[in-house]
Every structure is written in structure tokens, then in C-alpha cells.
Amino acid sequence: MERFQITDEDRELIKEGLDVLLKNFDDGVYNHTVGCALRCKNGKIYKGVNCDGIHGSCAEYITVGIAISAGERDFDTIVAVHEKHLNCVIPPCGNCRQMMFEYCPDIKVIVNDEKGELIKVKARDLLPFAWEPVIC
Fold first, then answer.
1. Torsion sign over Cα 24, 25, 27, 31
2. Where residue 86 falls among pLDDT bands split at 50, 70, 90?
3. What number is the average pLDDT over the span 43-48?
4. How confident is the model over 17-40, as pLDDT tens digits?
5. For the chain, domain boundaries
6. In angstroms, rounded to a whole number, what is the distance separating the alpha carbons of residues 80 and 92?
7. Smallest Cα–Cα separation from 4: which of 101, 111, 127?
8. 39, 61, 109: which is closest to 49 by C-alpha?
9. Quick one: which of 30, 78, 110, 116 has the fewest CB in 10 Å?
10. Helix crossing, 94-103 with 59-69: angle to 10°?
11. 114 given a catalytic annotation
């Protein structure tokens, strides 16, 4: 798995994710507890929070959807955050990993490594043997 160094831009992206989370945090009725920030290759940043409920949506899903709705397709880096987690950064769940594999397999995802240090890896590396559409 190729690992990429965290840059100052990445640290700013983490702050953007925390910003959207703190502005919308609600651990009661709506349970907005995860923020996400996505940087496109053109430098634009899109942000979102999770929407919990019986069929809730993760912050990563919502943020990618917001960026796609704005016409973006060239994604660079994404990060999900929770204010009470190590370095505030949390890894994407399996469902989000599959979505990233299908929509943007080369997007870099900020995660914590085995030592708790921040690194970036490609989404495709977070989900080995991922399901791929089969055309018969």
C-alpha cells in the first residue's frame, strides 16, 4: 500500500472537516457527530456531516454527493473527523470505502496508521478485493 505524507493543505482540510462538524454538531435528535471535507484537484473544498436515522448516511457519502452535484469529478483528498477520536480523524466505514472505490478509486484518504500517525492512502487500497460491476 502506497503511503503519502500529510501536507499543510491536508492539515487545513482536517480543520475544515472539524469546522463543519462543530457548526452542526448534535449528539441528540439528529446525531450529527461526523464531519467530512473533500478537496478537489482544482482546490475547491466541499464539506458535509452525517445524517443519522434509521437509514442514515455517512458524512463521506454526503460530501461526495455535494461535490458531484456541483459538477466536480476530479477529487484529490478526503477526510472524516470526529472530535473525540484520535487526531480527530476517523477511517471510512466499509460502505464508504466501496463508494469511494466505485466513484473515485484514486482519491487519497487521510487515516491514522498503526502507530496513530496521520497518513494518506488511495481509496482503492482501503478495500482489497472490492466488488466491481460486471457487464455480461
1. positive
2. low
3. 98
4. 999 999 988 777 777 889 999 999
5. 8-125
6. 7
7. 111
8. 61
9. 116
10. 20
11. no
pLDDT digits (tens, 9 = 90+) for 92-110: 999 999 999 999 999 999 9
**DSSP one-letter code for 26:** B
| C-alpha 60, offset from chain centre | 4
pTM for the complete prediction? Answer: 0.91
Q: Is 114 helix (H, G, I), strand (E, B) or coil?
A: coil
Amino acid at site 116: G
Give the DSSP letter of residue 87: G
Q: Exactly one of 2, 12, 16, 60 is catalytic; which is it? A: 60
Q: Is 135 exposed, middle or buried (0-12, 13-18, 19+ CB in 10 A)?
A: exposed
